[in-house]
Amino acid sequence: MTETSTTAENAYTNVAEGDAHVDTQIGVVHGDANFYQLSGATREEKYRVGRNYLEGNMPRQAEGMIREAFMAGYKSNEVAYYWALAVLSNRPFDHLSGDEFDQLAQAFAVVRDRPSDGWAVAVDVVAELVSALTAQEQQVDPDPAAFARALDRYSRLPAARREELRRHLEMILAGGLQDQMEAHDAAEVERRRMGNDRTDRVWKFFEDKPIPPRITPPENRDESSGAVWMVVGGTALLLLCVYLGGPLLLGASSWLFALAILLIAVGSGVAVTFGLDVVRGRVRRSVLDARQTTHPRVERQWRYNPATGSGFSDALLRRVQFWIAKHAPEDPEGLRRWNHDTRVAGAWIAHDIAAQFGEVDPVPRVAEVEWLIRWRCDRVAEQWRKGRLRTSSADHRHLPGVIAATVAGIATCMTGFVVFAGNLVAQSAFSGVATTFGLGGASVMIIIGGSRLVRRTLAATHRAEEAAARLREERKAYADWWKSMEDRPTDAEMAIWLDYDKAYLKAMVMRQSGFANRDLIGSVILVEGASSGCRARVLFGPLRHSRYILQVFLLSESGIRHAVVDLDFGSGIMSNENRSSFRYEAISSAKVEEAGIRIGSGPSSRSIPQPRESEESTSGKLVLSQELRLTLNNQQWLRVVVGNYDEGLIDRLREDPRTLLELARDSSGINAALRILEAIASEGGDWVKHERERRRRRIIDYQRRRDGLMALPPGGVQDPPTVPIDLRRTHGELGSGDA
Predict the structure, then answer these.
(1) Which residue ranges run through the membrane (predicted)?
(2) Least confident span in 293-302, 453-462, 729-738
(3) In whole angstroms, how far apart are CA 178 and each of 171, 173, 620?
(4) pTM metric for this prediction
């Protein structure tokens, strides 16, 4: 576990023990509500949001939105193209129903009846690829010229269209045709997988909207009352002595009195002038020493916020721990010095930020000041590397001349006082001594009390100047942070990178297994966010993770090849690969059920059950997550957990938990996988035979509907048509512009 304590002796530790993940964030929700949310009920808005859903790899939501826009009269070749992609995306061909065929027919009919352009060419390529697929499934030796023609037209599409076809037709395409397309695009896919500065940009998606820095409130320490009373008392005693010793002062020697006053005035002026500089230096050294050797005091109100139930400073300490540990050297001696030198510095970082924001109402989330924590820890690491983190107090000492001048001023002042006292005693021994002691005591009280007030005033001024200087630096860092966030990835970019990762994993496992696409009946790829990573999402969109667990199932004639890898999404590195294989008869069940909070990892991890939300409930209780559980005959099981939309990751006023959970199922691949895996569990070893028969029936149905529609004249298809179409006519090819 991670140990944190706020006692004076042990307020900070850099150590995370066991299986603790101090870098795990609760999650971030970006407030770009318009990306997946309609800003109006117009058909244009529905199409825009539908396209965003498709780019974000949520084709079922995209299909519904684009269909609504189309039915409302928003028809063009572009709309037809994206509608066709949405219908076909994340579906094997045999999962297409008559309703999907009808939608394809409507999309194709729009292109048939309109002038040709780049979008129409793209729709034609989709239709031609589907035709090549049907020929491949029905014929033992399909026409290679048809394959070559389809691949040639595909290769001449703009890069953006080819990328969309690769992403969304992956489950439709199969066999030799898919092998040829993947071979053609291998270099481009590899380049695009880590393209667009992925490594330098992914982390920005998980950064919360920051709170701007604010001035640190002054510490509320009222410890000056004693010094004030000393000054007041000394002044009163001084006035009393002057009043009672007035006759002595009037009878004193005028020239000795003048000399004494002159010496006192000159000495006091020199002592105060140079002494203030000395005191100021000592104040600075004391503040510096305190920040380098003494743990700060953590105020109780910074530790817990009753309104949110969160411990703000505790969370701050954990995040400072994480970022300090990020910079720790690897060698044992360097690590020992690092831990020793940064122990107090880290505690002061947490203290300063807690002082800035701990009393803000409401208390902010730590994710909102993450940028400041990181910046402060980066500065500590830089100063440590330069040997400037623990500055010696001797570096701030004054020149000997300043101290000598101060001592000389005090000596001159005391000389003047001795001359003054001697003059009084010469007038009257008893009265002169009494007045002298009274004036001396009053002066001592004024000097001691005044020096304490001066020290505290200078200390407060120094802290205020430090806070103001720190605020200027933090404002600059805040502006730099916003500038660095200008290229934060969009949700669509995150989805595209993940799709390339899935394609890369599938190709890697196929290569290791000695498979080509023509050797497979199908494939399933499932995506699960790892519990140890960061999470973020766009409002009304699915969760994105900094770490994933990817599972791929390759379905061949002989059985299933299964592989699981951990994916670091920022770097694209896949690790901890586990592979297995089993026959179709080994799967006894496949089902999706509600799950809870996942504790631990691997087969031994536990899940806390969560109650189902009642249909009649109006409280909007959120089902935390769902899981796809695949049970094998040997009592082993595989599972993928999706969702986990807990508090802090959902806008309860604007978002529907059921819709969000459906988004999670769609983007994770569960919706596409469940039907296949359920059929395997039901049919066992006969699944391959039944799957081929289902696919054959769907192809025949498709061809019959297509041929019936081709007999209709242009414009002869009305909403809704009864049969789809695969266009056979030739459109003009694209020019230099992108469709």
Answers:
(1) 227-249, 255-276, 399-422, 428-448
(2) 729-738
(3) 10, 6, 45
(4) 0.73
